[in-house]
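B., you asked whether I could sanity-check this one before it goes into the benchmark set. Here's the sequence:
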Amino acid sequence: MRITVNGEVRDLSALDPDMPLLWALRDVVGLTGTKYGCGVAQCGACTVHVDGVATRACQTPLSSVGNGQVITIEGLNTPVARAVQDAWTTLAVAQCGYCQSGQIMSAVALLSENKRPSDADIDAAMTGNLCRCATYNRVRAAIHQAARSLA
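And here's what the prediction gave me:
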């Protein structure tokens, strides 16, 4: 089993194909920006991109990734990603910060597909990204700001 993580091919053939992608990324590859939250794909802390789609890594077995391209928070390097990260910093979105890598990954996936999202679009895309600090209004504002900067 070989997958590409942040542009680098990784041989993970020694791993159990049922191992969640999250644990392969964190424990084997050493990329700890993707967080463990709930373990049941409900909180969004473990969100990564698999072939450009926001995916919950805690419930994604390695075998389902196939030859997919996996991007983690450490590998984000696109104009959309930079716009989101800049907006997050400018608007001081993060409070405790634990959920922010998952929030950013979901926001980048949204803006990669929809350059001018409405509040309803944002709500739909960000559903399942939980924030114990309740920074949801700042998240929405940052997504709108990133969209404006990309226009």
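One thing to flag: The radius of gyration is 15 Å. Otherwise nothing jumped out at me.
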